[in-house]
Amino acid sequence: MGGFNRRLFGYSIKQVDQRVAALNKQVEYYQGRIDVLEEDISQKDTLIEEMTIQLDAATEKVEVMEATQEEIARMALKEAATLINKAKHNANLILTESLLYVRSLSDEMDDFKHKTAKFRTAVVEMSKDLLDTIDNSEVFTILSEDKKD
Fold it and tell me: Which pLDDT score is estimated for 40?
């Protein structure tokens, strides 16, 4: 800061006025800069608030998505367990039915074997009876005597 020239009743009014005017211009310049910076800060604060709101919304969406994914995974596991249990149950039913069918076939086979053995015995008996009848018939006796002569 420069000094002022002294005059009879104090400082030079012109120099003081010039200095005051220069200082007023500096004050106006700095006040303008302050206003611009305050506006810039205000805009940045508004932007920060908007970004904070968007961040909060995005965070909430992520939390909802994570919760939804966890619920879907839980439900999928539950459904898979249910399907596995149903499949096991159905497999056991099929196995049980198959075993019953095999047993019934085995019983039928045993019955068939028994009937076959019975039929064979009956055929053997009928054949013996038929041979006895033939052997004891008159025609056989006559034919047998003719062959001896």
Answer: 93
Express each pLDDT in 103-120 by its tens digit.
999 999 999 999 999 999
Q: What is the largest CA-CA distance in the chain?
A: 199
CA angle 79, 83, 85 (to 5 degrees): 115
10: left (phi over 0), alpha (psi -120 to 50) or beta: left
**Phi, psi for residue 3 in degrees, rounded to 5:** -85, 165
Amino acid 7: pLDDT? 67
pLDDT of residue 3: 72
CA distances from 118 to 77, 123, 131, 132 (A): 60, 9, 20, 21
Residue with structure tokens 């994914």?
69
Contact 5, 12 (CB under 8 A): yes
Please report, in angstroms and rounded to a whole number, the separation of the first and last CA atoms in the chain.
178
Which residue positions in the chain have pLDDT lower than 50? none
DSSP 8-class letter at 9: T
User: Phi first, then psi: what are they for 11, rounded to 5°?
Assistant: -85, 165
Where are the alpha helices (H) located in 1-149, listed in sequence order? Answer: 13-135, 138-148
